[in-house]
Write a structure and sequence with these properties.
The protein has 466 residues and is α+β, with helices and mostly antiparallel strands. It has a domain at 95-339 and 402-463: Cytochrome p450. It contains 16 helices and 14 strands. The chain has helices at residues 32-37, 39-50, 69-78, 93-96, 105-116, 121-147, 154-171, 178-198, 210-235, 238-245, 251-257, 264-295, 297-308, 325-337, 369-372, 416-433; strands at residues 12-14, 21-23, 53-58, 61-66, 83-85, 151-153, 344-348, 352-354, 357-359, 364-367, 434-438, 445-448, 452-455, 458-463. The strands form four sheets. Strands 1-2-3-4-10-7-5 form a seven-stranded mixed beta sheet. Strands 6-14-11 form a three-stranded antiparallel beta sheet. α7 (154-171) packs across α12 (264-295) and α13 packs antiparallel against α14. The longest helix has 32 residues, at 264-295. The chain is globular.
Length: 466
């Protein structure tokens, strides 16, 4: 069934004022049923069939989906102050509260300035050893299943790794048994939020349903974890000055120093926002890398050769990781095909005009990376895996705002360099030690939650000869 505006399925007509396609769908429900069946396919088809802008009726809501790089740039950069997080993000407030992910205005700017200190080049250079140690611990852990010929579910393994890296580098905490509890709690609350975002009818959270009770227990698990970390750091506050004098103050030190009269609940929101943004997304990106490399052995061989070219007998230094140019291309291409944060929306505070398109105050604007990254007008062979398109020497440089897995403009992800660094370390280290083979018969599918996880990604580990 096509989503064309002239279809007999009731999907819409042209907006008379702007000549922008308007897809309406069913009475009352709009396009929500079609979207719920397969969100990724739905948005990809809309972008491919209806061009740079299209109105979508999603239940009671009318959303302007923008698929043109110039329009995207206008929202993310040219007139960014006019576009704030939409009300759809309210579903995340029980999890993230007033943390940086949902904050706006001066509140957001203050949190960003504090956090930005942890992602400067000198700090990233200092974090390299801790990142490498976490990856080495994972590699040692993998030796047992590799020796026994057992398969691993790569997704929770990458979740554990990136959570471990984040906790060691930003909060100076080493996780032992807590990672599974935190991982499962985060998964549950994300799935609940995703279900609520796309559902036209909302179940009140206070109803004592089985799902609501499970979500409440998961939130309590996350709260215990974060508040316990805050209490432990306060108990060791005498060490904070020494760490600052040595230039080793971590993000938790900085957040505590900047807390002022803020409540611990607000500090909890800031920490949990960093944990969610800093490990969930990168873990998904790494999992998709392993999936794609398993399907493209020539690319895997090039990644392995690049990893073997690094100095032997010791972990690579921060500066030496820049030699992993092809590995970086693989990572970028994985983010194009499977952007971890695959869609987001903004609301216009005041009336505006985007590339000649009038936008009224209160309009909800959607920017869908997954769909834009697959537009044939913007990408050759958009469904194909082609790391060479990101080669800095031969690739196509005309990709800004057609490629935005970390968002873009002033609110781009401040942890982008952090995510790239830990990913290069992880890919190179694993590539030197193991071959990862996708178990046959699996239907690996992206699960469109708030982030884009692979479903069913079990791989067999084969240790490489030393």
């Amino acid at each position: 069934m096509s989503l064309a505006v002239d279809s007999c399925e009731g999907f819409g007509s042209l907006d008379r004022q702007t000549s922008v396609p308007a897809l309406k769908g069913l009475p009352l429900l709009g396009l929500a049923p079609a979207l719920r069946r397969d969100p990724l396919r739905f948005f990809t088809r809309v972008a491919a069939e209806h061009g740079g802008a299209v109105w979508l009726h999603l239940g009671p809501d009318r959303v302007l989906m923008l698929n043109d790089p110039a329009m995207i740039r206008h929202v993310l950069q040219d007139n960014r102050p006019n576009y704030v997080k939409s009300r759809f993000y309210d579903m995340m407030r029980p999890v993230l509260g007033e943390g940086i992910f949902l904050a706006e205005g001066d509140d957001w700017l203050g949190q960003r300035k504090t956090a930005l200190r942890s992602f400067q080049g000198c700090q990233l250079r200092r974090m390299t050893a801790a990142m490498q140690d976490a990856v080495d611990d994972m590699v040692r852990r993998w030796q047992v299943p590799a020796a026994r010929g057992r398969a691993l579910d790569v997704v929770p393994e990458m979740m554990r790794l990136t959570l471990d890296i984040l906790m060691r580098t930003l909060f100076s905490v080493r996780l032992d048994g807590e990672h599974e509890e935190v991982f499962h709690a985060m998964t549950l609350v994300l799935r609940d939020a995703e279900r609520r975002i796309w559902s036209p009818l909302q179940m009140p959270r206070w109803l004592p349903t089985r799902r609501n009770r499970a979500v409440a227990e998961a939130l309590a698990t996350l709260d215990r974890f974060v508040y316990g970390m805050i209490a432990e750091r306060r108990a060791a506050s005498a060490d904070a000055k020494d760490r600052e004098d040595r230039g080793e103050a971590d993000l938790l030190d900085m957040l505590l120093a900047a807390q002022g009269e803020s409540t611990d609940r607000r500090l909890r929101d800031q920490i949990l926002s960093m944990i969610l943004a800093g490990h969930e997304t990168t873990a998904n990106a790494l999992a998709w890398c392993w999936y794609l490399l398993s399907l493209h052995p020539e690319s895997l061989r090039r990644v392995q050769a690049e990893a073997e070219s690094l100095p032997a007998g010791r972990p690579p230094a921060f500066a030496e990781l820049s030699a992993l140019t092809y590995t970086r291309c693989v990572f970028d291409e994985a983010l194009r095909l499977y952007p971890p944060l695959w869609t987001f929306s903004r609301t216009a505070l005041a009336g505006d005009e985007i590339a000649g398109l009038p936008v009224a105050a209160g309009t909800n604007v959607m920017l869908n990376m997954f769909a834009v990254h697959r537009r044939p007008e913007l990408w050759d062979n958009p469904e194909g895996f082609d790391p060479a398109r990101f080669d800095p020497e031969t690739g196509d440089p005309r990709r800004r705002f057609a490629y935005f897995p970390f968002s873009d403009g002033p609110r781009s992800c401040l942890g982008e360099r952090f995510a790239v660094l830990e990913s290069l370390i992880a890919i190179a280290t694993v590539a030197r030690r193991f071959d990862l083979h996708l178990l046959p018969g699996q239907a690996v599918k992206p699960e469109p939650m708030i982030t884009l996880r692979p479903q069913g990604l079990k791989m067999r580990l084969v240790a490489k000869a030393a």
